[in-house]
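As described in the Methods, two query proteins were run sequentially through the folding procedure within a single session, without resetting any intermediate state between them. The first query and its resulting structure tokens are shown here.
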Amino acid sequence: MSHITIRGGRPLRGEITVQGAKNSVLPILAAALLAGDVCRIQGCPHLSDVDSACDILRYLGCRAQWDGGDLLVDSAALTRCDIPQSLMRRMRSSVIFLGAILARCGWAELSYPGGCELGPRPIDLHLAALRALGASIEENGGKLYCRGRRLTGCEIVLASPSVGATENAMLAACGAEGDTVICNAAREPEISDLQAFLCAMGAEVRGAGGSVITVSPGQALHGCTHRVIPDRIVTATYLCAAAAAGGDITLLGADHRHLAAVTTALQQAGCRLDCTAEAIRLTSEGRLQALSPLRTAPYPGFPTDMQPQITAVLALAQGTSLVTEGVYGANRFKYVDELKRMGAHIQVDGKVAVVEGVHQLVGAPIQACDLRAGAALVIAGLAAQGKTELSHIQYIERGYEDLVGKLRAVGADISLVEAPDESDVETHAV
């Protein structure tokens, strides 16, 4: 099994160019189904989740191919409206294809999605939004059977500001008759990016970034060219890496406007940050200070996808930090046991972690349990003394493009150890 080896204790210095946002590009790839034409997605990150989304598109009959750093999607030849379990289970966000297929074809058949093991994240809000538009949805044997030949615009009031439900409602509403108003919509920057893409295809969508989004019927949609926004979670991960390991790094192409909650927390911990329109620079010298309280919340609050990474930073801070998970359940803290193997003093009680900072973490064999947990353990390894071996890195590859190479470029002693393929093993055995 492939793993990452880190010899920590080296400060990070230099520049990293931030990749395009995974959480933007996945709903955008689903939205490309609505065009029935060629869409060019610029700045698309090379990730395993993107590969999974492309495999879904190809199964549906579309073309998806790379052109340098751009991804070209031709959805003219859509031939299927079902997605098998084998493809759905590869990532949680695969459910985002439901609204787009329903809008384009009037029916869809999907199994329940998979992805990181973060505990139950029901799609009830997604289904409620689609039913409000007039879709008939039956659930049987782990599959969803959806029919909606005549979707009708309406007012949709989400019970909570779910990002995925907001996106599915936006996509389905593009195929409805009459205006659709989505209330209590998610406000994440990725929602605004999806709106920009839909508008570039000819849709009339407004309000993203606020709590009310309106989708109006307009002209037939068409292909377009769109550049994905920078990944704010990847940006914040690199900031946390430099905060924990120490040093001076500049993140090119980052948008600090999407990261106010994270940058504020790092400044309060003792980091220096300088933000411009095109870059973020962080300097970390000496031991950081504890933060208490820190609670995750929907955007613009502190992102749940940064909770593991900031906890890894606070594991080395002076004092006691209190971290509360306000979005997902206690499963979000599964990685804590791995940090404890490295010497961290953390106690978890339900959705609350009490982090008593230690002077030093020690390298150890550890394993990732999900995407952001994997990133947190890399951060811990960079700051620890000695050698860390991190396994189950397939989770990291879902969301971070060339994480090892980019960290090595700024001074980290980190390497990817590839596992031999079966043929190599067989030859060696002989």
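Immediately afterward, the second query was submitted; its sequence and tokens are:
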Amino acid sequence: MKTDIKKISEVKVEITFDLDKDDLKNYKQIALYELGKDLKVDGFRKGKVPINVVEKNVKKELLIDTTIDIAIKSAIIDCSMKENLQVISKPEVDIMEFDFEKGMKFIATIELLPEPKLVDFTKIKVKEEKVEVKDSEVNDILKRFASSMAEKKEVKRAAKLSDEVTIDFTGIKDGVEFEGGKAKDYPLVLGSNSFIPGFEDAIVGMKAGESKDIDLTFPKDYHAKDLKGAKVTFKVTVNSVKEVKDAKIDDELAKRAGADFKTLDDLKADIKLNIKQNKERQAKDKFTDEVLKQLVEKSKIELPEVLINEQIDAVTTEVKQNLAYQGLSEEKYLEENKLTREEWIEKEIRPIAVSRAKLGVALSQVAKDLKTEVSDQDVDKEIKKLSLQYQGPEFKERLASPEIRNDLKNRLIINKAVDELVALVLKNK
């Protein structure tokens, strides 16, 4: 494959691709393989049709179109990787020549990632957070563990704070049961503040078998709009009362925590180490976030609208998924917040999209400036890791595609560039 790159502007190039017949032969083989996956031919299982048989049973026009499509995508990806071109939109393609026996010639007009003016990395100053673990933090975890290993004994007396009661309850508002306000055999530790204020206090003093109506008012800042500040009645029946006695914090508790622990000191040391490692991860993440924040804020980054629009689509999808997890649709969210969709995009979505796009552009330039590279072996390792994580032939097939491989390589380069930038900032602090 021969290429001739003509620079049109700082963010646009025109590339002439000249593929010989051998190049085209390879792409034709890939096309036949792809077309053969869904081809049904008598005497052969689906997906197991030999290449030579596939060629005889597919329309020539379909074979040509598929070959052209694969050739264009593969050639552009190969050239982009070789020349380190950061393509940001679908190229415009003009096919000049095509012949299986002679080759293919086409011109692709490609929009490139703009080159930002980055801040001098030595000007990024971030204070490193010191990590320490207090004895009280270790003891808090010990207490919670002892509580989880607590002995529970059913008693006949009235319930008191710290007891675990099993209850049936039904919440009623304006004479009607409300959604989420009903349960049977619900375990509740009195004093845990799991319910709205007043609910658990009202159960204190009740015995197993007793029923009671509890009149309460939901907090004005309650998350469910229909229940904010609402007056309700809970019909409660206590099924059982259990006295909870926490396990004693000693060597025996440590042994119950795991075979590796012989003494309480062993368990404390392990807890302390875990807390320390967790704090170090959090401190590192916080440090990295601040480095990236300063990188964007102190750099001059011009964004093409195509990049912003791509991020707007991505952020919108992400936010809608998060809303769905909360039981909210886009329409319901807009209604509750008195926003039009245009206002929502402009006020809430676009600022996030712009921030992400700027960071992406900045990090791409960081990778260039630091000459960050990853090997094919690194990409292979990542593909292997993903293939183990996500099973299935379709997914493994996708992982083998040049597009996915290129995306993975770019992602690994960016991640490595972030690590290298953070290391530089730490060195220069």
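Residues 151-245 form a domain with the Chitinase A; domain 3 fold (CATH 3.10.50.40). We note this only descriptively and draw no conclusion about the first query from it.
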